[in-house]
Write a structure and sequence with these properties.
The protein has one domain (1-47). It is built from 2 helices and no strands. The protein is mainly alpha-helical.
């Protein structure tokens, strides 16, 4: 599974929660952070 797929699946499974790049990177073990750009990620931020 690609990093993009990991992020998309995670966001779909956690729709009602907000995560920033740092949080997603930590939870999904993706380093370095901010290597994925997803359109329509507007409104995503830390809890």
């Amino acid at each position: 599974m690609t990093n993009s797929e990991l992020v998309l699946d995670f966001i779909k499974d956690h729709r009602n929660q907000l995560y920033c790049d740092d949080c997603l990177s930590e939870v999904l073990h993706i380093q370095p952070r901010q290597q994925i750009t997803i359109d329509n990620a507007k409104g995503v931020g830390c809890n």
